[in-house]
Design brief:
Elements lengths: L25 H19 L14 E9 L15 H6 L6 E10 L54 E3 L6 E3 L15 E3 L1 H6 L24 E2 L17 E2 L9 H8 L5 E2 L2 E2 L1 H27 L18 H6 L31 E3 L11 H9 L12 H15 L3 H10 L3 H28 L5 H19 L7
Antiparallel strand pairs: 1-2, 3-4, 5-10, 6-7, 8-9
GO cellular component, one term: cytoplasm
Protein name: UBR-type domain-containing protein
InterPro entries: UBR7, UBR7-like_UBR-box, Znf_FYVE_PHD, Znf_PHD, Znf_RING/FYVE/PHD, Znf_UBR
Length: 476
């Protein structure tokens, strides 16, 4: 949950130009449309916007919504509705978009809605006993229990979903440094990690935490982390500092130990000073790496060779080439339990981050399966439970349905000459400006944008367009 990753559609005319103009090309517009379309297809693609999903039972994963009009947030009970019901039964209501949830059956029209029947499927049971609800259904998220977006929070912060409790957390409230987006696949929040002690046997596969620096220019540092009461961890990939540390970071301790920051010719040399400090201690830290690698061998299955260490970059590769084959073990043989070949590792507080394919590494012997079941996390061994699997299905379904908006737009664009392209982009910029001004009024008045409001806006646009096309009476 975060800002849309739209491509930048503007560029500066010059660094010294105080009146910078936004330059938008038609390709920029179509590319932005494609990204928004892909994001929508990822979440809504596998869903059915015409039929209630109730009769399909408890779906492995689906897009859900909570209606605060029918079920206010101050109520003790919660309820969730499917995509189709959000359109057909609650179209003009105050809805909370819940993204996706697992093992859920649509509640629309049951006893939680006090007699209001579902228009798509009126015959339903009174309750769905296997549904589980969290605070998201009341429109609040994270350990701070605030809405998203939060009008009272001036700080912009992305949110990440825990794969166990499925709540969303601000990065700054995870009590942990967050790796780069392409270095991990799934996150388990701190409280959920604490509730699942068996995960400590697999921490050797988790993405190592990174150092949080205070470099506001988002430069990268590539150093080894030295714990006060333990050995150094192996060097990590360069990671830009995107969040402020909630605790005193090791990088800051190094800086304070080696003297204050100095100024040269009025230029701050904090980053350079930190770099020199790191380089001076690099030789000492690297000597400890060999010992760290040796210690790590005790924390991985014996199927690894003596020279291998399961790093993030090759976990999936090792599964694919058969080095790790937990799914193929004889679950009837207690001696084949992978946990017996692993060592329980101590862990730091906060969230843990896991690479793509880590679920395949979990032991599936009978004893471990019972352990997962007792903690209500049997889904951890199911690759199809992942959000990525769900999104891939949505994208595949959309591709099979025909060309995307981007492809259709590029085809239409190629048929236009230069003058027509300029007219089209000018029309888009005009529409964009008017729409921003129109929606700003809703933000100021804290009103929900309805379908009728959007239709009214475009009707006004059409009227203005006709006025421009009409020939003035005085024209000769």
């Amino acid at each position: 949950m975060g800002d849309s990753n739209l491509p930048s559609s503007s560029m500066s005319k010059g660094e010294n130009d105080d009146n910078e103009e936004s330059i938008v090309t038609m390709v920029d517009v179509l590319k932005a449309e494609e990204i928004m379309e892909e994001n929508a297809d990822a979440v809504l693609g596998p869903g059915d916007d015409k039929n209630c999903t109730y009769n399909e039972g408890y779906l492995k994963r689906q897009a859900l919504y909570s209606c605060l009009t029918c079920h206010p947030a101050d109520k003790s009970e919660s309820a969730g509705i499917c995509l189709a019901c959000s359109y057909h039964c609650h179209g003009d209501h105050d809805l909370v978009e819940l993204y996706t949830k697992r093992n859920f059956r649509c509640d629309c029209g049951n006893s939680l809605f006090m007699g209001k029947k579902c228009t798509l499927d009126p015959v339903k049971s009174e309750t769905n006993e296997s549904n589980s609800y969290n605070q998201n259904f009341r429109g609040v998220y994270c350990s701070c229990q605030r809405p998203y977006p939060d009008p009272e929070d001036p700080e912009e912060d992305e949110m990440i979903q825990c794969i166990v409790c499925e709540d969303w957390f601000h990065i700054r409230h995870l009590d942990s440094s967050v790796p780069k987006e392409d270095e991990y696949s799934e996150m388990i929040c701190g409280p959920c990690t604490d509730k699942l002690p068996f995960l400590q046997y697999y921490l050797g596969h988790a993405v190592s935490k990174i150092i949080k620096t205070e470099d506001k220019n988002e430069r990268s540092v590539n150093i080894s982390v030295v714990e006060e009461d333990g050995p150094a961890t192996s060097p990590q990939k360069q990671v830009p500092n995107k969040i402020s540390p909630t605790k005193e970071s090791p990088a800051k301790k190094i800086n304070e130990t080696n003297g204050p920051v100095v100024q040269e010719n009025g230029t701050c040399t904090e980053v350079e000073h930190l770099k020199e400090t790191i380089e001076s201690s690099e030789e000492t830290l690297m000597k400890k790496e060999k010992q760290v690698l040796e210690d790590a061998k005790d924390n991985v299955p014996e199927t690894f060779s003596s020279e291998e260490k399961p790093e993030l970059s090759n976990v999936t590769e090792e599964v694919d080439r058969g080095v790790l084959t937990p799914k193929e073990t004889d679950v009837n043989k207690e001696s084949e339990c992978l946990v017996k070949k692993l060592k329980m590792l101590p862990r730091e507080t906060g969230a843990t981050f896991w690479p793509e394919g880590f679920r395949k590494l979990l032991c599936t012997c009978n004893l471990c399966l019972e352990t997962y079941k007792s903690h209500n996390v049997s889904f951890l061994t199911d690759e199809e439970d992942t959000v990525r699997s769900y999104e891939d299905k949505g994208k595949l379904r959309k591709r099979e349905a025909g060309p995307t908006q981007y492809e259709r737009g590029m085809e239409a664009l190629s048929s236009l000459d230069r003058v027509q392209q300029m007219e089209a982009i000018l029309g888009y910029n005009e529409m964009k400006t008017h729409l921003s001004e129109y929606l700003a009024k809703f933000v100021e008045n804290k009103k929900v944008v309805r379908e009728e409001d959007i239709k009214e806006f475009f009707s006004g646009m059409q009227a203005r367009k006709r006025q421009k096309l009409d020939i003035p009476y005085t024209c000769r």
